[in-house]
Amino acid sequence: MIRVLLAEDQAMVRGALSALLRLECDMDVVATAADGLEAWQLVEQQLPDVLVTDIEMPGLTGLELAQRVRDKALGCKVVIVTTFARPGYLRRALEAGVVGYLLKDAPAEQLAEALRKVHRGGRAIDPQLAVDAWSEADPLNDRERQVLRLAGEGMSAGEVAAQLHLSQGTVRNYLSEAIGKLNVGNRIEAYRLARQKGWL
């Protein structure tokens, strides 16, 4: 049996995916989680074979979850199932150790086949996204991305500085670097462009 843990913050989608996977005779959904922090606790408790997760979730994102699984060497395969058909997300997912990346509008039977494939040691990546992912590089480094995300979500430079334990001047420098790299006029435009490209 392939032991699956499912992390998805939308209850209806989580229920539908769980019901779908429970129809498969070789799969067991051992737990479901409504946010990233709950998912991480369950990964450590249940040690599933495969973690199926969305990207955007409260607490921890799917990408942050994948990084934790990789860093702890838990042996759990991570498959992203998302609405975000953005090459930037796929690039970052692969860098975080994700072995599967599927879109929510893919045919239902593709998910079970993808889980079998990654469980056997393969990869299951949407082919068009795989091509697009390497066409445009993400210019931001991790710290610029972190600062830009918080600033774009409405935090002041002081609030970002306090949360990340940086000086306000350092935060302004990171924002300035991000704005320059993205060739836009201000941090709101930088945030919008980076979101659109899947770099945040």
Molecular structure report:
The protein is of the alpha/beta class and 200 residues long. The chain has helices spanning 11-22, 36-46, 62-71, 87-95, 108-119, 127-133, 142-152, 157-164, 168-182, 187-197; strands at 2-7, 27-33, 50-53, 77-82, 100-103, 124-125. The chain folds into 2 domains: 2-133, Rossmann fold, CATH 3.40.50.2300; 142-197, Orthogonal Bundle (Arc Repressor Mutant, subunit A), CATH 1.10.10.10. Strands 2-1-3-4-5-6 form a 6-stranded parallel β-sheet, sandwiched between helices. This is LuxR family two component transcriptional regulator. Residues 133-198 form the HTH luxR-type domain.
- Binned, the helix content reads 40-55%
Radius of gyration: 18 Å
The strand count comes to 6
Biggest sheet: strand arrangement: 2-1-3-4-5-6
Order of helices and strands: EHEHEHEHEHEHHHHH
Structural class: alpha/beta
> What count of helical segments does DSSP give?
10
CATH homologous superfamily assignment of the largest domain: Response regulator
- CATH secondary-structure class of the largest domain: Alpha Beta
Shape designation: elongated
- In the residues, how many domains can be counted? 2
Runs in which pLDDT lies below 50 for 5 or more consecutive residues are none
Strand content: 5-15%
Q: Main β-sheet: number of strands, strand sense, barrel status?
A: 6 strands, parallel
Give the CA-CA distance, first to last residue. 36 Å
Keywords: DNA-binding, Phosphoprotein
GO molecular function: DNA binding
Organism: Tahibacter aquaticus
GO biological process, one term: phosphorelay signal transduction system
